[in-house]
Design brief:
By secondary structure, the protein is of the alpha+beta class. The chain is built from three helices and nine strands, in the order βααβββββββαβ.
């Protein structure tokens, strides 16, 4: 017996969605990394100073300064380049179908009016890393590196608020970051 479709959403994956992901979900890890790692080099530099190893301490302070500046800029530039390669000249569409036990995702590329299916996946909710909800999007993280972006305006079946409540009950790490009062 086939499971009943509870919710369905179709969302484009473009530059706008990628920027929303960067702004919402990836800024905090990048900022944390660019503070914590240089701080470790500073601590090591101080330790080397304490044991009178000035040249090694200078290297540690140099690494700290370089890491604090270079790391966030590099992450941003590399991410933007990857996204442009994927997006240029094509339109990517994801279709999300939510069932009680799993979600089904179909990825398609639209080129000059033709639709090419790139792949499909069934993903069980207990395998999801986390879900974040903003005013415009729902970010569904498969792991810390992969994320699906649902445009809230792309609902075809079911109600948005019921989908959000459904996901909240299915996924252990759930964050609602909406600024708009839902109630």
């Amino acid at each position: 017996m086939e499971e009943k479709l509870l919710f369905k959403n179709v969302s484009a994956m473009g530059e706008k969605e990628t920027k929303a992901l960067m702004k919402t979900a990836l800024v905090k890890p990048i900022i944390l990394s660019s503070i914590v790692c240089p701080l470790c080099f500073v601590v090591l530099g101080v330790l080397w100073l304490l044991i009178n190893q000035l040249s090694t301490a200078i290297w540690m302070f140099s690494f700290a300064a370089a890491f604090a500046v270079v790391f966030p800029v590099t992450i941003f530039v590399v991410t933007q380049r990857k996204n442009r390669k994927v997006i240029d000249g094509r339109r990517l569409l994801n279709t999300y179908e939510f069932y009680d036990g799993y979600m089904f995702i179909m990825t398609q590329t639209l080129i000059e009016g033709e639709s090419i299916t790139n792949g499909t996946s069934n993903i069980f909710y207990n395998k999801l890393n986390r879900v974040q909800v903003t005013d415009d999007y729902i970010f569904i993280f498969i792991n810390s590196q992969q994320c699906f972006i649902l445009d809230q305006k792309g609902m075809l079946e079911g109600e948005l608020e019921k989908l959000i409540t459904f996901l909240k009950g299915k996924v252990a790490r759930f964050k609602d970051r909406r600024k708009v009062n839902v109630n």
